[in-house]
Write a structure and sequence with these properties.
β1 and β2 form a beta hairpin. The N and C termini lie close together (5 Å). The chain is an alpha+beta fold. 36% of the residues lie in helices and 26% in strands. It folds into 2 domains: 172 residues, Ribosomal Protein S5, domain 2 (2-Layer Sandwich), CATH 3.30.230.10; 132 residues, 2-Layer Sandwich (Alpha-Beta Plaits), CATH 3.30.70.890. It has 10 helices and 12 strands.
């Protein structure tokens, strides 16, 4: 059995100030490529192949997850082959896609009977953002409502601690069919593990007013713009969100050249931003034509690892024999 999981773009976290009854929360959307692709096969012992490019922390988390799932299946093993995976720690949500692909695959191949919410909890993801764990099952544009304030000791990255309860899926919107997404991945250092956790510790909680403004811009700006396919409204909201709150802190940690490139795009009326902590830059386009000259002009000063155009995706994963 092969599980193909979509990547996601994370627009912004919402409440990073304990300004409301719920912490975290936010908005993001699924994209068709790049994908995480995993082959799952029955076996008498645990075997995990194709993970050479994963960091040590991700290998350990994957090994633990497979052991948990095999135990739930009352089996002695399972063969996991990672056939394809996006770059780690750049903004694709690759760890969440991989964890859920493996959990869902073992659940299906051994007919364990676990439901969506059980798989989400077993994956160990969703401790911060719930966009990825919901996008895997639903695709489209996702709004999650975060976690109850009393559950949150401190603001941490999604993989730093498994959630007690799942972030509720409040809304799922179809991705506009006439829009596409340009993905630009700059060649720069990434942040993960202890460094990412330290970033959260040093930059939260933020002032309450900044969180409230972010929430207003997400729920009365970004989400209606997607719902109405209103490109100009989305461009305005993304530009605003990058100017304050936790997103501005994620943005300002990046090299000046990346900040200038995104500001160049935004100043020209393009709906652009960074996904999660970056450095992945996303630019939505109103049609499915090739990458425009204006986009290339703003990105020209950057050293890019990759530049591509993809479509949004209204499904989170596919299963094939």
């Amino acid at each position: 059995m092969i599980i193909t999981a979509r990547s996601r773009i994370h627009v912004s976290l919402a409440d990073m100030a304990f300004a409301s009854p719920r912490g975290f929360g936010g908005v993001g959307f699924a994209i068709r490529d790049p994908c995480t692709c995993v082959r799952i096969s029955p076996a008498t012992q645990i075997q995990i192949d194709g993970i050479d490019k994963l960091d040590a922390r991700s290998k350990f988390a994957l090994s633990e997850l497979v052991e948990r799932m095999v135990l739930r299946a009352n089996k002695t093993g399972c063969k996991i082959e990672l056939l394809n995976s996006p770059p780690q720690h750049v903004g694709f949500g690759s760890q969440t896609s991989l964890s859920l692909a493996v959990a869902a695959g073992i659940n299906a191949i051994y007919d364990i009977g676990l439901q969506q919410d059980e798989l989400q909890l077993l994956s160990g993801r969703g401790g911060g953002s719930g966009v990825g764990i919901h996008a895997f099952f639903h695709g489209g544009v996702i709004w999650d409502a975060g976690r109850a304030r009393e559950e949150i000791v401190a603001y941490q990255p999604s993989g730093a601690g498994a959630p007690i309860t799942l972030p509720p899926l409040m809304l799922r919107i179809h991705f506009p069919t006439t829009w596409s997404v340009v993905l630009a991945l700059p060649d720069c250092l990434t942040i993960s593990g202890a460094s990412e956790k330290e970033f959260f510790q040093n930059n939260t909680p933020i002032p309450e007013l900044e969180s409230l403004r972010t929430m207003a811009e997400l729920y009365h700006g970004v989400l209606p713009a997607f719902h109405n396919s209103d490109y100009r409204a989305l461009a305005r909201s993304l530009k605003t969100i990058h100017g304050f709150g936790f997103k501005s802190r994620e943005f300002r940690r990046l090299p000046e050249s990346i900040q200038e490139a995104v500001q160049c795009l935004q100043s020209r009326g393009l709906a652009a931003g960074i996904s999660s902590l970056g450095p992945l830059i996303y630019i939505l386009q109103e049609d499915t034509n090739s990458i425009t000259e204006l986009v290339e002009q703003c990105l020209r000063p950057l050293s890019l690892k990759s530049l591509s155009r993809v479509l949004g995706c209204d499904s989170g994963h596919d299963v094939s024999p």
